[in-house]
Amino acid sequence: MPTCFTIAPQISAAAPQNLRYMHSYTATLICRRHAVRRRDGRAKIVVQAFINGLKVEVPTGVTIEPRFWCNDSRMVKLPRERREEQQQINSLIAARRAKAWDIMTRSMQSDKILTKDSFLRQYYSAGQLDDFFGYAHKQIDRWTGIKDPMTLKNYGDALKKLAQYADKLMIADMHEHTARRFDEFMQKQGLKKNTRWKHLKNISKFMSDAVLDEIIEENRWKRYKVRKEKTAPEFLTKEELQAFIDLYYTQDLKGGYRIIARAFLFAALNGGFRQGNWYTLSANNVEGDTLIFQPLKARKIKPQTIKLGITTIGRDLISESVEAGGLLFPGLPTPQQVNKQLKELAAYAGIRKRVTSHTARHTYATQFLEAGGKVEVLQQILGHSRIHETMIYSHVTDTSTRTQSVILNDRFSAPGSELLPGLSL
């Protein structure tokens, strides 16, 4: 099997210089050893083509450990026990190279000059004809157990909304013009700006993954911009959180209400972890007075382990579950049902706010800062990769700053100031 295709017809030396390379095409397979993208050390195999002297690289969709690439044969060579896998990989990359060759051959047969842009359009066109909704639902299946359940729900909600606009879309249709028309559709439905922004952002996530999966070259969906309106996080004040605690300890809450209230209070008092961890935390995550866990949302991108001290109330809330050795909050209903019953609990406690599971996270962050905690420490507790994510809670400092800025009032006084409120000269 040839490893490099070249088309370079003979052109008279007397021909103009700019015509000599009008039909000069080559295509070969290379392993990008020095452009390792993945954390596991695997490198991409690409088709490297030269279109009339211009280099272009297109993906094969295959990544391997560089040591298994044979530069002489331009093929993958795996250990003997993996020969079947080797055959499959080599067949796949050969097909990708043949695809580039077919594009070049058609250009020669039609006597049309192939450009870098036209080559890329034709190379990517096949994958772009895939059904977008089918691809998106496969991605959600891949993310199940990795991403936060509420994040997956939000992705699903965005797809449902998009399906209301158009129930059949190809990946090739997912560009900035479709995004704009989809936004106009949502506006006509009366959706608020931040809701529209969320749906557009979640759809963009699928398109960014299509780039990583080398189905498309660019995520054109994100070219359409909708700016999110800044809103203060909804949180419970000290008095409201105390009212929720009193409700839990003084009322005979039944069924799911009690376990939901317990999970909410534990999160609001102990680190503000996301709802996804409500379903996964168990007695194994508790060592003495310390809670040790990985934030579910961050596992795929940046695995990290967080260790938090457990408050006195927190220890009481989970004591039975720790002794039983199972989940800390067994029997939790679905995320949607949790939020529905939280609203009812909040109303019963006299709290006139839209309380959801995420309110526990905002409440913890707010109470932490009001109690004098440092924003840098809060960043680590919440698992934020960037400080500006934590700074959304800076609204707390507005009141605290005004109060604490005059703290020296109680330390110093001018002689006779209690007798002389003012002076006239």
Number of helices: 15
Mean pLDDT: 81
Q: Which percent bin holds the helix content? A: 40-55%
- The low-confidence parts are 1-21, 419-425
Shape: elongated
Quick one: biggest sheet? 4 strands, antiparallel
Tell me the strand percentage band.
Answer: 5-15%
Structural class: alpha+beta
Distance N to C terminus: 103 Å
Radius of gyration in whole Å, from Cα?
A: 30 Å
Biggest sheet, spatial arrangement of strands: 1-2-3-4
Order of helices and strands: EEEEEEHHHHHHHHHEEEHHHHHH
Q: How many beta-strand elements?
A: 9
Please give a structural write-up:
With 425 residues, the chain is of the alpha+beta class. It is 47% helix and 11% strand. The protein is built from 15 helices and nine strands. The strands form three sheets. The chain has a four-stranded antiparallel beta sheet with strand order 1-2-3-4, with helices on one face. A three-stranded antiparallel beta sheet has the order 7-8-9, with no helix packed on it. It has a two-stranded antiparallel ribbon with strand order 5-6. Strand 5 and strand 6 (75-76) form a beta hairpin. Helix 8 crosses helix 10 and helix 8 (255-269) crosses helix 11 (335-348). The longest helix is centred in the first third of the chain and has 28 residues, at 83-110. The protein starts with a strand and ends in a 21-residue tail after the last helix. Residues 1-21 and 419-425 have low confidence and may be disordered.
